[in-house]
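This is your field. Pick holes in the following sequence-structure pair:
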Amino acid sequence: MRLVLLLSILASRVLFSQWANDTTRYPWPVPPSNVQKQVGGTFGEYRSTSEDGHFHNATDISASAGTPVYAVLPGTVAVVFDDGNTGYDSYVRINSEVNGQTKMLTYYHTRPVAGLSVGQSIAFGQQISTIAIDHVHLIEYRFGTSTNVTQINNLRPGGGLLPYDDPWKPYIRYVKFFRDNTDIQLSASALGGKVDIMVHVEETNGTTSATFNNGTFELGYKIL
């Protein structure tokens, strides 16, 4: 991932404030649910898989095709969809009530189990689908009643997937400085005025190749 960080724009800090108070916690959706799983894709990382590119809106939890997927919160089935093909676009969405507010979770790239229907009540830990390819794309939304509400990071401090420990340090390939809003590169020992900072960061979340280049959700700096 190539992450451009401008001194004048700290969008990640604004986004952080939107979900910092959401302390909803839940286990991992594949067994065993109380054991941390391999993360193959992180929230907010840039993807160039489309013409315009996009930012990843979920956490990818790695597991082999056919692995059962369990509801991490009790709730009601809102959507059941099987694409009838590879299962890539198949998913289940569950609406839950948390402290009187609606919490939505989408289990994408998973095939619904037979007989699952919209409006059905789902218990915590009940199987709702199986992984179609090699991971479940778990989308969590901010409290609300529509999928138009902002999607949030499942690996946020104080909420989301539990347990989660991140002992891996990000690898910073380079830090470059440019004169504000230009392509003129500056020496790190001769900075002054408005400066743009470009950083190439690789975020590691495990020991396999699938975890070596995940996105960095938040990056800060300090002026000394």
